[in-house]
Amino acid sequence: MATVALSSFSRGVARYALVAALATVFALFAALAPGFLSGANLLSVLVNNFALLAIVAIAMTFAVSVGGIDLSVGTAIDFASFAFVSLVLAGQPVALAALGGLAGGALVGLFNAVLIAGIGISPFLATLGTLFVGRSVQQLLTNGGNPVYLPPAGVPEAFRFLGHGTLAGIPVPLAVTALVVAGAWLVLSRSRFGRVALATGIQASVVRYSGLRLPRITAATYILVSTIAAVVGLILTSTVTVYIPSSGNAFLLNAIGATFIGTTYDRHGRPNVPGTVLGVLLLGIVANGLLLSGLNFYWQQVGTGLLIFSVLAIGFANRKAAARA
Amino acid sequence: MAESGEAIIRLENIVKRFGGAQALSGASLAVARGSIHGLVGQNGAGKSTLIKLIAGLHRADGGAVEIDGKSYDRLTPHLAEELGIHFIHQDRLLVPTFTVGEALFLGREPRIPGTPFLDRAAMRRRSAEILERYFGVSLPHSALIAELSAAEKQIVQITRALIADPKVLVFDEPTAALVRREADLLFQLIRRLSAEGVTILYISHYLGEIVDLCDTVTVLRNGRDVATLPVAETSAAKIGALMVNRDIGELYPKSDVTPGEVILQVDDLVLAGRYEAVSFSLRRGEVLGLTGLVGSGAKEVVRTLFGLDRPTGGTVSVKGETVFSADPAAATERRLALVPEDRRSDGVALDLSVTENTTLASLGRFSHGLINRGAERRQTEDLVQRLQIKTDGVDALVKTLSGGNQQKVAIAKWLSRQSEIYLLDEPTVGVDIAAKVEIYRLIGELAERGAGVLVLSSDIEELLGVTDRLLVLFRGRVTRQFISSETSPDQVLADVTGAYETLLHAG
């Protein structure tokens, strides 16, 4: 009887290690970091530290779901951003330019899909290659990496809406993030596509032997990943009204970190949307809290690293204990 | 040669259990020094357990192991090699990314005397010498193992053993991956090694080979040695009869179903190099058996039907419509279902739940935009009940189920898909006897409901018990067709093992 109680207890701990870490970190900074609890600061955490990274991390969660990874999410962000800015500069309506931006990002996913599902290159190497190729292409397009500015006078008001507007009082980036999160959650945990994607990541051979078209599932996933990432390219460009080559890569490592932190939230350690969102929140709060505590940037990185280690360690140690019991 | 005296390997009353399963129950084996000793038995008779015991990979639960007159109660792989016992196994694989030279000397690389450095010159000299002397071939020392043919890989394995001056060479199904000519070369080599004083233990399904090659043969059945005979005094047919267990009870609850229309028609199907001119038809309500040794093409026929291999000729039609595409998705849409042999790799996803596995091939039925999880659950609960799957609930991960119950989940997946043609590849391998009977009953039930069932199995009694008709493949061709109820296991075994052919050649 004692072992039964213990095993269900450890399963609980495995699952809630992430929530506990979040609560602890939050309480810690509330006590130590001046101004952390202020409404203005918390909103800034959500808009500046959470929203965009959350979208990229959601994209990454799909790649990890099919058993892969996408190192070129930043490339998709950049291509979306470049296409968006270029189309607006060319005088196209903003809505059309935004669609063009999404298409620009999706193109990166299509390229990955051909490499991974078509040729059979491992996702890590294929998307690493895309990352390098994407960087060169951007340098070629911009005379060696010059930013492309929109002239301040010529920026249509609609262009700035994605980055600076509000919907019913909610900043648009946050609203878009909420939409992406909700949609991604439905797709990954409630739709046929999401189920098959997770099954592919867990045991691809069974998916094939069940009469499902494996290459098609993989290809669709990588295109979806890039398209979601492209949304970030649009918001980012709308916020700063400039396209800076290869700037999207800044999200990459945190997105991977958040996704894997998020897997500890699932009973079976699968990639999942709520876990990823909690992971992004955790990283965002730590970054903001350390900043307010007056620690310099380098210590922030150390703090983030330690946090990832400890959440993963607790999560996995407990799941192992639960599996043994 | 067999007369040359005392036993170099002697196993007495070996008992070995794996969990609840009794793999060996008092098996004995004595291999005379200098002889070529054959070891035969059906799948599950205990051959591989016995061999692994000699190799030091398993430890006996009871009985005595004597090598060269000395008794050992704890053999290890390293000790077995030191005693001069070496193993040539068809799929004891060499590291594919090693070069020939590296593979030959792995673990016992010669050093330049007095230094820690490998003596590459000595390695090259020694391997070239052995390759030339025994095989009359030279393999490029720096070629990768992955680039070699099956026969060349075997040469590397044998050479690796010969470098160590073996006293005993154990060949485990060595000809399974070889073509006829290569097999003949292997037999010449084995005879030559025997003449040089090496003792040979030879395990094979091909009774013809045993009769050609061996001095003595030991027959294993149900974990016990039932006979050890000088080959000169027996025949392939007699050995076959000894392998078959005759005293099996009412294991096969076979119900009588009148076959309906033809649901699957196969005409002159060819997969170059694997099988040729395979034709048969399968009716609704019929259970058709397919059997053959590894390399006979039986497995490949099943793979082709499910679209995993593309045939090079012939046609397959389902319900009168010819099927063109080699694609499991297309096969599934035609209501074909495959329960693959490697259940844990291809049949079920161990880290998905019972529900997720059951509905994986039929999610379309449960999703209209989003998955209707209630309907999905009800379907799974129905099937768990109907197939009597023992599980800790439909949300339990499949890896927590026993082998037999995992297999039932693999079948439930296709019942949920409402498949009509079931291809079952070795459906009862690795499941206990009670689960076997339940799977047999399930096969009968599928037929009663109007499905066509094709069972591929190397367990001949099982096949005769559950099927209506039985096709035998030998070296890529359908060599015989039997009506199951009018056939005895040894008749089939003679065809499966090619004993029939051997007799023809002899006569």
From TrEMBL, chain B:
Q: Is Repeat there in the keyword field?
A: yes
Protein keywords: ATP-binding, Membrane, Nucleotide-binding, Repeat, Sugar transport, Transport
User: What PROSITE patterns does the entry give?
Assistant: ABC_TRANSPORTER_1, ABC_TRANSPORTER_2
The organism's superkingdom is given as: Bacteria
Question: Which Pfam families does the annotation name?
Answer: ABC_tran
Stretches assigned to the ABC transporter domain: 9-247, 257-500
Question: Does the UniProt entry include the keyword Transferase?
Answer: no
GO MF, one example: ATP binding
Which family does the record assign? Answer: Belongs to the ABC transporter superfamily.
Q: Which PANTHER family match?
A: CARBOHYDRATE TRANSPORT ATP-BINDING PROTEIN MG119-RELATED, GALACTOFURANOSE TRANSPORTER ATP-BINDING PROTEIN YTFR
- Protein name listed in UniProt: Sugar ABC transporter
Whose protein is this, by species? Metarhizobium album
